[in-house]
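Encode chain A's predicted structure.
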Amino acid sequence: MKERALIDRRNSSGDPPPNGRPLGEVFKEIVGHLAEIVRSEMRLVTLELKQELVELKGAAISIAVGNVLLIYGGLFLLLGVVYALSTIWPAWVAALAVGGALAMIGAIVLNAGIRRLKHPKRK
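Encoded structure for chain A:
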């Protein structure tokens, strides 16, 4: 009985637990595993982002090409309006009329955008 009490006192005095591993070593191992988990999650996130970028690359190229084509199409439509008006007016007057109309529309849209930035709608 006395031996049992002696063994119990030894274990409570900072000796290693009965399984042979000190508590500090267990905590170090836990921290090491947590760090490894965090690094693995970071690698996983990086790989997922790279995969999404590869998948979205084709869509981004299509959008860019579509925008360029729309701009050129709009320019040719405006050129057609100038040519159509040049049958009625001299070509320079037709070009001035189309350019003036575009400048006025652009100024109105720009002014509306600036107003929205200065006074956003509150929800």
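Residues 23-85 form the longest helix (63 residues).
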